[in-house]
Amino acid sequence: MRVIRTIFFTIILIAVCFTSDVYGMELDEYDFSDIQKLMEKENVDFDFYEVAQELGTGDTSVVKQTFITSVEAIKNEFVFNRDVFLQIIGLAIAAALIGGFSNIFNNSQIGTTGFGIIYMLLMIVLMAGFMTVSQMAERLLELLIEFMKLLLPTYFMAVGMSGNVSGTLVFYEVMMVIITVTEWMFFRVFIPLVKIYVVITIVDHISKERVMTKISGLIKKFISWMLKTSIAVVTGVNLIEGMVVPAADSAAVTTLNRMTSVIPGIGSGGSALSGIAIGAGNMIKNTIGGAALVAIIVVAVVPALKIAVTSFMYQILSGVLQPVTDKRITECISVTGYGMEMIFKIILTSALLFIISIAVICMSTNSTYYGM
Fold first, then answer.
1. What pLDDT score does 86 carry?
2. Which residues 6+ apart lie within 8 Å of 80 measured at CB?
3. What distance in Å separates the CA atoms of residue 230 and residue 228, rounded to the nearest whole number?
């Protein structure tokens, strides 16, 4: 590993000293075409190269624009769900009326049959809404993972050009593991478990006596615990690697810098030029990393806010209808809202795993440049 680092830094030094054009010192030399094609394919209004350029010049207007986009998405979600909520309110009121009439005429059979029919209709409406949200979540996760797969080669090329050879190899492997685990755990485990939780809980509310509270509670606790654990593990691994690996690269750069400073013909001039090259690579690495963080927010977090708003609206609807209709109706609506909340947490957690990783890589690999 030391031999690889020495060869790498020597090549950079020679290239800087004897050529006027070194690859990797300009943002234009990095290829973002695949990322842009993905954005256009998914109708995401985001130009990665343009955002990276703006961040490189210190312009943070893209952050303001992202906030405005989030507000607009939240407003549109209220309008989009209006018809569904009207249907739910109508079914809830109908269930209350049937229960009232059955009590007046002392005919429990009419009330039970009528409530069963209305509950089945309500279950169809709620499950249709929930499945739409879960499909949206799956698509967001697919887009997020695809974006990260396209980003990594370009991003870690910039990390390598900033003088972090060991960091490039180690962090690349860590990121690939995170992508693989996220793709498997979130698609194959978490989202299917949320679907199972919502279905068995809604079905369990058909009768007045609930018999599946334990298993539904276990599923809910398992998902919550695993999401928190995944964040803790990824943060811990990245912090440990961020403390150890860049230190080795920093030591190698410092050693080589001192060695070349005594070489006749190159001397301190060569050291200064190599510092400029690594400094330029460091700036581009941070610029690409910053653009990647904004892209993750635009691709995953902003659309996920729609799910959070929908979940909140279901909870409000459940609270408003509680004094009016049957308890089973309101709990059914509340469970659907909580299922959407769990879906939102899954998307947010997956985005946070990548945001934390990129942020740690950007900050920790700066030590190579500062060490010079």
1. 82
2. none
3. 6
Structure token digits, residue 55: 């961040």
CA distance 372 to 362: 17
User: Distance between CA atoms of 231 and 107, rounded to whole angstroms?
Assistant: 55
Nearest to 277 by CA among 4, 15, 8, 6: 15
Confidence of residue 71 (pLDDT cuts 50, 70, 90): confident
Residue 282: exposure state from Cβ atoms within 10 A (0-12, 13-18, ≥19): buried
Task: Give the span between the Cα atoms of 152 and 31, in whole angstroms.
Answer: 12
Q: Is the pLDDT of residue 139 over 60?
A: yes
* pLDDT at residue 13 in the model: 46
Give one DSSP letter per residue of 48-63, joined into a string.
Answer: HHHHHHHHHTT--HHH
Q: How far apart are CA 217 and CA 367, in angstroms?
A: 46
DSSP state, residue 365? T
pLDDT in the model for residue 257:
56
Decide if pLDDT at 344 tops 90: yes
Q: Which two tokens stand for residue 3?
A: 């031999």
Rounded to an integer, what distance in angstroms lies between the CA atom of residue 149 and that of residue 132? 26
HEC-encoded secondary structure of 332-345? HHHHHHHHHHHHHH
Rg (alpha carbons) of the chain, rounded to whole number = 27
Q: What is the mean pLDDT of the chain?
A: 77
How many whole angstroms from its chain centre is CA 23?
A: 31
CA dist 63 and 145 (Å) reads 22
- For residues 183 and 353, give the distance between their C-alpha atoms in angstroms, rounded to a whole number: 12
Return d(Cα 351, Cα 123) in angstroms, integer.
31
Predicted confidence at residue 98, as pLDDT, reads: 74
d(CA 319, CA 222): 26
Instruction: Give every CB contact of residue 199 below 8 A, 6+ residues apart in sequence.
Output: 127
Which residue in the block uniquely carries the two structure tokens 């860049």?
Answer: 246
Q: What is the mean pLDDT of residues 102-121?
A: 68
HEC letters along 187-203:
HHHHHHHHHHHHHHHHH
Indicate the pLDDT class of residue 194, thresholds 50, 70 and 90. Answer: very high
Burial zone of 128 (CB within 10 Å; 0-12 exposed, 13-18 middle, 19+ buried): exposed
| 324's tokens | 């009016």
